Amino acid sequence: MEGLLLGLGFIGIALAILTPLFKSGAGLALLSMAAYFYFIGTETWLPIVLFTAGLLLIVFEIFVPDFGASGIIGIILLISGLYLTIGDFTQTIRDLSFSVVITAGVIIYLIKNGYSLSNVNKLILQTNIQSSSDSTAVEKDRINVGEEGVAVTPLRPSGKVTFGEDSTLYDVLSTEGHISKDTAVVVEKVKGTKITVRKK
User: CA 66, CA 51: separation in Å to the nearest integer?
Assistant: First the structure.
């Protein structure tokens, strides 16, 4: 029962990250995890704080994969929070393994149906690009599909890129999610004020 509640919490997070159902996913995650800690029972707030901090670091790692350490620390904190709540390492691993397996199944199903981080990234990018100034839009007329450039900042998924000998910084959107700084990119599409790029 407890493992199922934990799994529902992770599924809620997956729905919030991968689909437009952010509010519903976040609500499911909060309710399921609150119920999990309620049924298990905990005498202090420390396990919940550790678990929550670990979960946030793991989510951060998903959006900023090059950071690295946050994911490892997040997993350690998450397991520590569960262990301090349950008091049994075997049950902790069993509950966590069960929840990870069913969440992985849901994520695979969502990906097969066209959901991915790139969908979230594109929404973020469109919002950022729409705020570009008219002068930037004029400069973008010089950028053509297939033109090569270099990421001056990390693209998460939006960021700055320079093209060729031109030192002008252009606002772009990555169609492949996170792209690290100094990575070579290629213009995939130019539409109005929007420039979308991918790794070279």
Answer: 23
